[in-house]
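SAMPLE LOG
Freezer: B-3
Tube label: C17
Construct: single chain, 139 aa
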Amino acid sequence: MYINSKIDQIVIDNDRLHITYKSGTKNDILISDLKDIFITVNKINPLYEFAIIMSSIIIALFAFFHLQANLILIISSLLIILTIVKTNNYKRYGIKINLKNGISIIKRIPLKSKNDTIDFVNEVKKKVYNSKIEKSNIL
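STRUCTURE (predicted):
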């Protein structure tokens, strides 16, 4: 089960993750309930990327051969193709939290805050590791 609600903020406390949604609701998750947490890289499906590029090339070739296009139309068609290729290579990052009960929480992250998110994920993993060590020392 995936929870893709608009997550505003994820904050770590001593033994909990506080998740605040844009709707104003809050959710607390115990560190011991975490299965794993990691950063994902979301890219466009290669089949869709291929279809976009091929359709752009077909449109440019049609304009070149059948419309007796001049240089301005060819340059503008190539500019459109390059723009589409550039936007399709853009990577979108996200943070994924898997819980032991099978629920996955996903939050999209802008590229600018990727390094801060890496530090956050490492801090959460350290807390999970420390909680497991504390439990093993009690037993």
